[in-house]
Amino acid sequence: MNQLKPETLCVQAGWSPKKGEPRVLPIYQSTTFKYETSEQMARLFDLEDSGYFYTRLQNPTNDAVASKIAALEGGVGAMLTSSGQAANFYAIFNICQAGDHFVSSSCIYGGTYNLFGVTMKKLGIECTFVNPNASEEEIAKAFRPNTKALFGETISNPTLEVLDIEKFARIAHQHGVPLIVDNTFPTPINCRPFQWGADIVVHSTTKYMDGHATSVGGAVVDSGNFDWEAHADKFPGLCTPDESYHGLTYTKSFGRMAYMTKATVQLMRDLGSIQSPENAFLLNLGLETLHLRMPQHCRNAQAVAEYLSKNDKVAWVNYSGLPQDKYYDLAQKYMPNGSCGVVTFGLKGGRDVAIQFMDSLRLAAIVTHVADARTCVLHPASHTHRQLSDEQLLAAGVRPDLIRFSVGIENADDIIADIEQALQR
Ligand SMILES: *Cc1c(COP(=O)(O)O)cnc(C)c1O
Description:
There is one protein chain. The chain is α/β, with parallel strands linked by helices. It folds into 2 domains: 6-285, Type I PLP-dependent aspartate aminotransferase-like (Major domain) (Aspartate Aminotransferase, domain 2), CATH 3.40.640.10; 292-424, Alpha-Beta Complex (Aspartate Aminotransferase, domain 1). It contains 17 helices and 12 strands. Strand 2 (101-105), helix 5 (110-122) and strand 3 (126-130) form a beta-alpha-beta unit. Helix 1 runs antiparallel to helix 3 and helix 15 (350-360) crosses helix 17 (412-424). The structure holds pyridoxal-5'-phosphate (PLP).
């Protein structure tokens, strides 16, 4: 279905019912799947046949939704995970083991920053964080002989830095490693990182893809483009026999599906962060309108950002759709149709005024969430980044006065009126 346009893929990809089958993707609410003979089942366990046998590894509802996301990103395959955190962990852990190292942009989601900097370190995998706006030479200095991947976010949460994907892809490929991009904020409607040289894409589907704040979930998508065999010494997990499958070698048996197959039959089998089929069903409903919702998020966010940039109570505004924004040009290149619905800004008077402002909002709700249909707001310094001192906040790129305003798909005039009355109070 790759030749179809994104709007059609949103609605129809992944599930093509045959005669007499349900029009709507069913929820396969079953842990297990039946076979006629013991031999048939044995072949599945040896990966000699493909088929479902236990939902911890694969489920037809999940696979239909994963293949819709793969089609939207232009990849060869995808898997759903229980959360965006699990997706990021799997994406790295599929090619890194104890003693390995990877490089990541420092402008990433706080949860991912902890995962990479603290938890993966306990597994013996080290991460070096780099300033994504540094020169290629500067970033290249972070690479070591045991470096296995480069990671970045297309638009970082919450600091809204736009990644120069081509630059990152060049650096990764010069060092013989894949570029992994978290594409949660733009979604494939606004940016398809594979077109710019990324090799693996990850998502927190919890955000725009679900879009209705009903289900936590994630996805890993593979472009199928990275040549693991050309760097076989770096990726023994993919290019040498897997003892847990009688000596099968993923690149030899599965070609461009090597990475996704290993992630499914090894990581999902052993770690089990599967998405529930019911959540996958809800995610699919969200995806059916992603192409309608994203442009409305972007139109509304643009209107809110323009309003804020002209208001004299506002100290600063970040939104890559504003011509004066430092990421305007990069955003025009990678996301000409709009970036996302999240705007960040600070008020004159700083932190205390920010809290007063947020408490005065009526339409916009204070929630630990971002990127759904309802306008919501968060003050990272008081909430998600509460443990950090002002100095640490600044080091993480989060200004203490930063308000993260996630613009929904309501009417922009109503959202702006809400901001206006809160600013007056
Ligand atoms: C929310 C988020 C995550 C984590 O996803 P969960 O689904 O909450 O586990 C990862 N990356 C980005 C960019 C996010 O916004």
